[in-house]
Amino acid sequence: MSDQGKSTDSATLSAIGEARKAGIETVWDRYQAQVPQCGFGETGLCCRHCLQGPCRIDPFGEGARTGVCGADADVMVARGLSRAIAAGAASHGGHAKHLAHTLLKSAKGEAGDYPLKDEAKLRAVAGRIGIKTEGREAREIAVDVAEKALQEFSEKESPLVWAATTVTKGRVETFLKLGVVPQGIDSTVAESMHRTTYGVDADPVNILLGAVKCALADYAACHMATDIADILFGTPQPVVTRANLGVIKSDSVNIALHGHNPLLSDIIVQVAGEQEMNELAVAAGASGGINIVGVCCTGNEVMMRHRIPLATSSVSQETAILTGALDAMVVDYQCIMPALAGAAECYHTQLITTMPIAKIPNALHIGFSEAGARDCAKEIIRAATDAFKKRDPARINIPGISSAAFAGFSTEAILSALSLVDKDDPLKPITDNIASGNIYGVCLFAGCNNVKITQDANYTAMITELVKNNVLILATGCASGAFARHGFMTPEATEKYAGDGLKAVLTAVGQAAGLNGPLPLVLHMGSCVDNSRAADIAVAIADKLGVDLNMLPVVASAPEPVTEKAVAIGTWAVAAGLPTHLGIVPPVLGSRTVTEVLTSTAKELFGGYFIVETDPLKAAEKLLSVLGERRRGLGLGS
User: Fold this and answer.
1) Which of 214, 86, 220 is nearest to 150 (CA)?
2) Of the CATH numbers 1.10.8.420, 1.20.1050.10, 3.30.70.100, 3.40.50.2030, which one belongs to the domain with range 406-633?
3) How far apart are CA 554 and CA 480, in angstroms?
4) Could you give the 3-state DSSP secondary structure of residue 478?
5) DSSP-based three-state secondary structure for 596
6) How far apart are CA 549 and CA 538, in angstroms?
7) Which residues contact 233 (CB under 8 A, 6 or more apart)?
8) What's the pLDDT tens digit per position in 348-387?
9) Over the stretch 560-608, which tens digit does the pLDDT of each residue have?
10) CATH architecture of 245-395
11) Has domain 73-233 been given CATH number 1.20.1270.30?
C-alpha cells in the first residue's frame, strides 16, 4: 500500500513518512501483514464459541455445511453478529454506569471534584424520567436520577426508561409488538451472550431480534451517558477550536487525552489551566506551558466543552506520538491500540493508562478514582513534564497543518439557535425548510476510520455530494474528526460546498445567532455516545410533524466503521427507523438469511434497514434516493 493509499490527510501522511524513515511500525504496516485476511471470518462463517471448534463453513458449498454442533451458516453468522452488538452495548453500558456512579457520589458529597454543572439539564432529565423536581434541591434530585440510572442495568418488569421516554410513541409500539423492548442494560447483554452460546438459540431470525433488543439497550446506555455527562460537565454550546496534528506545540508540554470517558479528561483540562501546573512546565523549559490536545472521542468531549483542539482520530492515534513532541498520551478506555506502547518507546513519550480494566504493558499506570481526581490529574501532568525534559529536539516533526473547527452543537444548542429565528416555534425553521426542499433531508455521519479504507476518503467524497443536494449534515465521534481535519466544520465550507437551499437555511440561522455568516457545514454533536443527540433532534421533528421516525427524510451513515460499538449503534439506528449506510461490508455475507433480514426484512419490520455500499459516490446517490422516497411518502415531492 502506497502512502497515498493510507490517508487523504496531509498531516497524517507526513507522520507516516516520518515513521517509515525511522523504521517504526504503524497500523497500516500491521494491516498489510494480515493481508490476505481470513475469508471465512470476513463472511462470518467461523465459530469458536465452544471447545469443539473452531468450526468453519465453506461459503461455496463444497466443504462443511454445518459446525460440529450442527449450526448452519445462518445460525453461525447470526450468533457472531449478535455477540458483536452485545460487546458494543457492554462498552457503552460500562461508560454510562461509570458516569452514573460518579453522579451519585457527587450528589452525596463524596466526589468534590464533580459539582453539578448544569442544573437545568438535571431537572429536564429528571422530569422526563418521572422524578419530581418542584421545590427540591439539585443534589436531592441528582441522587434520585443517579439511583434510577443504576436501576436501568439490572432486569426489571418495566422497559428501560432511558429508551422508552426518548423515542416516538410509534417506535415504542413497534418495539413492544416485536418483543424487542429491553428491561435492563446489563441483563440484556447477558441474555444475548446466553442465547448465542453452545446449545441455546438456533433460530437465526430469533437471534437477530434478540440482537435488536440488545442494540436498544445500547441506545439507552448512550442516551444516559450523554445526559449525565451534560449534568456533570455542562451541556455543550458552540465553540471554535482547531483540528489536526498542527495543534501540537514545540514550546509546550503536550498532553494528548485519548479514549471515551470525560471523567478524568475534564479534570485534567481544568488542572492544566492552573498557574501551579503551568509554572512547573515553564520551569522544565516549556515556555508555552501546558498544551492539551484531544484524540478520538475523549478528544470530542473536551473539544466541545473546553475548546481543546483535536489532534487526530482513532486509526491515526499513533501519529500524535510520531511528531516527536508529544510528552504524554493519557488513555482511559475503548479504541486504544496496544501498539501505542511500542510507538511511545521509540520516543520520549510517556504512555499513561488510568482505568483498572484498560492496562497496557510497559505503560505507566496512574489509577483514577473520583475521590482523588484532581490529585490524579496533577500526577499525570507532572509525569508529562518529566517526559518533556527527555525530548530530543532533533526528532521533532510537527506538520504545520490544522483547520478551524466549530464544535459543540448539542440538541439544546441547536434548538436555542433555531429559537432565535422563531422564538414561539423553534422547530418551524427546520420543518418548513424540509417541506420547501431547502433542506432535502438530514444525514447523521457516525463511526470511525477503518484501516481498510484510505483515511477520510469516504467522508469527504460523500459529504460534498450530499450537501450540494441540500442535505443537512450532523456528525459525531471520529466522523466529526474527519470533517474537522479537512475544514468542513466551518462557515467557509458552507459557502463553498452547500447547495443554495441549504446555504440559505444555515445562513439565516447563523445570522440570527450573531455569526455574521452561516452556521458551519457540519454540525458537530459530540462523541460516539452522543449519537443520542441526533436521535433527539429526529424525534422532535417527528413529533412536530405528527409522524413516526420511519417516515422522516433522515438517514445515517458510517462510511468507515470499525468497532463493535459501531455495530450496536447502527443496529439501533435501523430499529429507530433510519436507513443506515455502511461503507464496510460486515461479516454477514455467509448467510443469505441474515443478509436479507438486515437489508430488506428490517425495512418491513422497523422502517430502517442497512445499505451496504463501499463506493462513496454510489453511497451518496443511494442515500439521496432514500431521502427522495421518504419525501414522496410525506407528500413533499422529490
Assistant:
1) 220
2) 3.40.50.2030
3) 18
4) helix
5) helix
6) 7
7) 117, 118, 262, 266, 301, 305
8) 999 999 999 999 999 999 999 999 999 999 999 999 999 9
9) 999 999 999 999 999 999 999 999 999 999 999 999 999 999 999 999 9
10) 3-Layer(aba) Sandwich (3.40)
11) yes
